[in-house]
Design brief:
Blueprint: E1 2-4, H1 11-16, H2 18-24, H3 30-39, H4 43-50, H5 58-63, E2 69-71, H6 75-93, H7 97-105, H8 107-115, H9 122-132
Antiparallel strand pairs: 1-2
Helix pairs in contact: 3-8
């Protein structure tokens, strides 16, 4: 099964690769943490993703409410499902209000991107990595 969510089709790919940052030992930048806080429904899912490196399946993401529905079959099935969703919501999007609402929903992500000033120093990261060996 493949995942489909109107306007957020890449959430599965995004969340399924977060775990590699944990196992690799790379810290999250503030804006990345803001995206996780926004996308995941609760602290349990956030902990499972960020601290345990869980790789979510499409079914698990649907069950916790991150994606709305699954599409059966191949890429063609995903495209048909996406097209149906787009046609359903197209009349509501004509005024441009969808984009404005979405921007308001993710305001904290934009703010975190603006304020993301944490510097990572290679020497400090090397010292920390050696301490984990």
């Amino acid at each position: 099964m493949n995942e489909v969510r109107f306007a957020d089709i890449s959430e599965f790919q995004f969340l399924s690769h977060v775990g590699s940052k944990v196992f690799f030992g790379a810290p999250f930048v503030q804006s990345f943490a803001a995206v996780l806080n926004h996308k995941l429904p609760d602290h349990h899912a956030l902990r499972k993703t960020a601290l345990e490196g869980h790789r979510w399946t499409p079914q698990e993401l649907r069950d916790i409410g991150v994606i709305d529905q699954l599409a059966e079959g191949s890429t063609q099935g995903v495209l048909e499902c996406a097209r149906t969703l787009a046609e359903t919501h197209a009349p509501l999007a004509k005024s441009g209000v969808f984009g404005l609402l979405k921007k308001d929903f993710v305001r904290e992500i934009f703010d975190a991107m603006k304020d993301d000033n944490r510097l990572v120093y290679p020497a400090e990261m090397a010292r920390l990595a050696k301490g984990r060996l």
